[in-house]
Amino acid sequence: MNIRIVKKSLLLVEGKDEVNFFTALLNTLHIDTVQIIDIGGKQQLHSKFQALINMDGFEHVKKYAIIQDADDDYQATFQSITGLLRKLNQPSPQEICQFVSNDKVAVGIYILPRKEHNGMLEDLCLASIDNNFLTCIDEYLSCIEQFTTIKNKPKARLYSYLSVNAKNTLSLGLAAMQGVFDLNNESFLELKEFLENLR
Question: Where on the phi/psi map is residue 44: left (φ > 0), alpha (ψ -120 to 50), or beta?
């Protein structure tokens, strides 16, 4: 990994979109003491995390959190992360939204979109959008499905929303930085409460 640890609180996320999204979300909480690290995707967590905890500066880290999409299996995602933590002798939370610590560091895990739900960051953002707007999007996508198969419906719904609301981007993270989502919507409350633990 080509990074340098510069803060005592770390947030490990899946990619660049997530880095931008969580930068925007942490800004709403007025938290600037967290270093967000792009681990390059869910499949790379195991190798990148091992490299991270062996880096210079990690010994000064007091708190870190790992956030990943549940995708199709919330429980398997959580178990994969906790298994990695135990294997590397790191504190391992027993459930989502929980931080546990040893005498050196506190560790938390959050699985998107929210506790005990399958899905991804896109689903969480969609939950913050007005239902009337989503109804229009769903009608549009239903028409499109007469001609082609939509491979990832949450992403298609979100891209449809961004195409008319974001400025020159279909990137969820950049859209969040532009203020396209109401990050004070109650849909984000559980996640924001979790992030408060990184202060």
Answer: alpha
- 161: enclosing H helix or E strand: helix 153-165
The CATH code of the domain at 9-119+183-198 is: 3.40.50.10620
| Distance of alpha carbon 199 from alpha carbon 197, whole angstroms | 6
Q: How far apart are CA 65 and CA 55, in angstroms?
A: 17
User: Looking up tokens 């239903």, which residue turns up?
Assistant: 142
Neighbouring residues of 48: CB distance < 8 A, sequence distance ≥ 6: 1, 39, 40
pTM greater than 0.90 (yes/no): yes
Residue 104 — φ and ψ, nearest 5°? -115, -40
Amino acid at 89: N
Domain boundaries, the chain: 9-119+183-198, 121-178
The tens digit of pLDDT for each residue in 142-170 reads: 999 999 999 999 999 999 999 999 999 99
Instruction: Confirm if 126 and 120 have CB atoms less than 8 A apart.
Output: no
